[in-house]
Every structure is written in structure tokens, then in C-alpha cells.
């Protein structure tokens, strides 16, 4: 396979391979760090490559109750619980009606879910991976790569050349490694999230429910986070006029406080904007396959979920577990393990798309809205 070069250089530079790893993971977020931890614990030599060091507040704050069993399987539940994440006891939604309805987790077998300090979660996973023996390059990006008979050679921005038997793409929705091999993602919508972080000076807000509120041109959500903070997000399609207006922080706050019940909650507890809103991609999209020749994708790089589902971080952990188990089985000679992982990702995503379509169809109050029309009148292609 010819070298893929982000600088457009079609010739291979002859360099001495300085380091060898059984697995190199591109991306040090939740999925990548979890996979590094699991592989290193199984004595697989592993390198994590992060384009930038973790910094500040990360968007993505919710874990459903089923995550508790997964963290216990990782052996990290006690550490996780000591980091100050807040319990989430259910959901509250004004969806299909202006009146809020509540769904409690009280009958869930795994108890409550979680509202996360995402920075602490990712740091816990990355540091746990390093303690298990993983190596970690921060502020480092992949410059060139080419395939060899027994894996990949990767040329990095820090001047290092790495030989890897396997590469794991954990680079998020951009799926950089897959994309640079001309594997194209399929997107099912144009959803974006414009998300800001608020803070208050008191502890009176003890609301442990995730709150979702549909509006004419999209929907809003909010959740209480550790350290008296509250996240608020507006979700709509990025090409719609109001979404473009909402990229202005003042207009975003005007929409929040003048036209939503969530805004009333924020004013009740005197929340002040702490980190201005920023827009990120929140669409549903996936690779046609999560595996290739000596590479596989995990987390959002494999399949990205609508925030309405609260599945993003859960599937980051879940695909990290399933992919590492597949790699370990493959190393023992199980030729079915890697294709089975691809089937797992595909099947879960098919089920998710069906649930996504169902929940959006429940909102019928805005029949003339392009946002809602796209979700009730459009036939989608399955992955």
C-alpha cells in the first residue's frame, strides 16, 4: 500500500524504525484511553498518540445506568466513584408536549446514571493506561503512514517513526486514519450542538435529572455537573438560519432565556455564563465498516450517536472493550474475532437508528419546521 501523506508527498522517506508496538492508538479521548488501558492490562505493548493534551472542559457529560457495570468490568468503578461525578437519577423531557414528563432510573438494575466531569474521566482512563504500561505521546500528530507486510509504519510530528502491528482509530467523528485511506463516513443528518457552560455561587441546585426540551427549530438540554456548573446545549441542523444566528453567544443566550423553560431554571439559580458556547458536530454518522486490514475504529470514529440517545460515552467504553477483546482473540488465532467486532458495531448502530427515528417521530407539534420535517419525512439508508 502506498504511503498516505498529509502534506501531499507521494514518496516514502527512508527512516529507521525507532520503536515497535503491537498496537498504536490514534486519539486519547475516552475510547482511545479505555482501549489503551485494556490492552496494556493484557500485556499488549501500546502507544497512545494525542494531537493535543487534554484541556479544560470537554463536551459529553452523561452516562446511563448500564455504564456502572461496564466500569466495574474494567476494574475502575471505585476510582471513578472517588472523582466526584454526580449521580443522574433520570430524565425530564418536554417532548411532544409543552409539559415536562419524568422518567426515573429507580427501577434500573444498575441504579442511577452519571453526570460527568469529562476531563476527570478521560484523565483517569489515560493515567490508568500508563500505570498498566502504555506509552503516551501528547502534542503529537500522524504525518505519514504506509503499510508493511506485518503492520504499519507511522511517521509522527515529533520526529519518531513507529512500527505498529495494529492501528486503532479513536480520532472521533473525523475518523482521520480511515478517512486518509479513502474510507468515507455515511452521515444521516446535519445535527450540531452549540454548547455553553454556566456556573453559580450556591449549592441550592440539586436537580439530578437530565432535562430535554423540544423547540420549533431543534431542542435544548441541560444537566447539572460537579462544582456548581451546569451545561446547556442547543441542537439543530447546522445549515438552518436560526442555528447560524445561534453561533453568536448573545443570540444564543437570548434564545435560551426568552423562549425556553430551561432558561427559567437557569435564572432561578442565578447561573452565569462561565465558558461561552461553541459549536461542535453532533450528527449521526458511521463508517461503512469498523475494521480494515490491520486497523479498526472505536468510539465516535466507528459510529457517532445523536446526543438524544445518551449513548456516545457509553459506546466509547463499549467499543473499547469489544475491540480489545477481538484483538486479543485474534492474536490467539481466532480469525472470526475481528469480523465479529465489525458486526457488533453495525448491529448496535442499526438498532440505534431505529430508536432515533422513533423518538424524533414522537414530536408532532412543529409540522412546518424544516428541522422536524427532515426527521419525519426522510427515508434513510442503513449502514
| Shape assignment | globular
Helix coverage percent: 25-40%
Mean pLDDT: 92
N-C termini distance = 26 Å
Structural domain count: 2
Q: Which superfamily, in CATH terms, is the homologous superfamily of the largest domain?
A: FAD/NAD(P)-binding domain
User: Number of helical segments?
Assistant: 11
Low-confidence residue ranges: 5-15
Main sheet attributes: strand count, strand direction, barrel closure:
9 strands, mixed
CATH topology category name of the largest domain? FAD/NAD(P)-binding domain
Strand content: 25-35%
Protein name: FAD-binding domain-containing protein
GO molecular function: FAD binding
Family: Belongs to the flavin-dependent halogenase family. Bacterial tryptophan halogenase subfamily.
InterPro entries: FAD-bd (IPR002938), FAD/NAD-bd_sf (IPR036188), Flavin-dep_Halogenase_NPB (IPR050816)
Looking at this protein, list some descriptive labels:
alpha+beta; FAD/NAD(P)-binding domain; 11 helices; 9-stranded mixed sheet; 7-stranded mixed sheet; single chain
Amino acid at each position: 500500500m502506498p504511503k498516505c501523506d498529509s502534506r501531499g508527498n507521494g514518496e516514502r522517506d527512508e527512516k529507521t524504525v525507532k520503536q515497535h508496538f503491537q498496537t498504536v492508538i490514534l486519539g486519547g479521548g475516552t475510547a482511545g484511553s479505555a482501549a489503551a488501558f485494556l490492552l496494556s492490562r493484557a500485556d499488549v505493548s501500546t502507544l497512545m498518540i494525542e494531537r493535543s493534551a487534554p484541556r479544560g472542559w470537554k463536551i459529553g457529560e452523561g452516562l446511563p445506568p448500564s455504564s456502572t457495570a461496564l466500569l466495574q468490568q474494567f476494574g475502575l468503578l471505585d476510582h471513578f466513584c472517588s472523582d466526584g461525578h454526580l449521580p443522574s437519577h433520570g430524565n425530564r423531557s418536554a417532548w411532544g408536549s409543552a409539559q415536562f414528563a419524568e422518567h426515573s432510573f429507580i427501577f434500573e438494575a444498575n441504579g442511577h446514571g452519571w453526570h460527568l466531569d469529562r476531563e476527570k474521566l478521560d484523565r483517569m482512563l489515560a493515567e490508568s493506561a500508563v500505570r498498566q504500561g502504555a506509552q503516551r505521546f501528547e502534542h503529537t500528530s500522524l504525518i505519514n503512514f504506509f503499510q508493511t507486510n506485518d503492520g504499519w509504519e507511522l511517521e509522527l510530528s515529533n520526529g519518531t517513526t513507529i512500527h505498529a502491528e495494529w492501528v486503532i482509530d479513536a480520532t472521533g467523528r473525523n475518523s482521520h486514519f480511515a478517512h486518509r485511506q479513502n474510507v468515507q463516513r455515511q452521515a444521516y443528518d446535519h445535527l450540531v450542538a452549540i454548547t455553553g457552560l454556566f456556573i453559580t455561587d450556591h449549592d441550592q441546585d440539586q436537580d439530578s435529572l437530565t432535562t430535554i426540551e423540544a423547540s420549533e427549530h431543534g431542542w435544548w438540554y441541560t444537566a447539572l455537573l460537579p462544582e456548581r456548573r451546569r451545561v446547556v446545549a442547543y441542537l439543530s441542523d447546522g445549515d438552518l438560519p436560526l442555528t447560524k444566528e445561534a453561533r453568536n453567544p448573545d443570540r444564543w443566550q437570548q434564545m435560551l432565556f426568552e423562549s425556553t423553560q430551561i432558561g427559567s431554571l437557569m435564572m432561578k439559580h442565578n447561573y452565569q455564563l462561565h465558558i461561552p458556547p461553541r459549536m461542535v458536530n453532533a450528527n449521526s454518522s458511521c463508517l461503512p465498516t469498523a475494521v480494515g486490514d490491520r486497523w479498526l475504529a472505536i468510539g465516535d470514529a466507528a459510529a457517532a450517536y445523536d446526543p438524544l440517545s445518551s449513548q456516545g460515552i457509553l459506546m466509547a467504553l463499549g467499543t473499547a472493550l469489544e475491540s480489545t477483546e477481538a484483538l486479543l482473540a485474534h492474536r490467539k488465532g481466532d480469525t472470526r474475532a475481528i469480523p465479529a467486532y465489525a458486526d457488533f458495531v453495525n448491529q448496535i448502530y442499526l438498532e440505534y437508528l431505529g430508536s432515533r427515528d422513533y423518538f424524533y417521530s414522537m414530536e408532532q407539534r412543529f409540522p412546518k419546521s424544516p428541522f422536524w420535517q427532515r426527521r419525519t419525512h426522510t427515508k434513510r439508508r442503513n449502514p
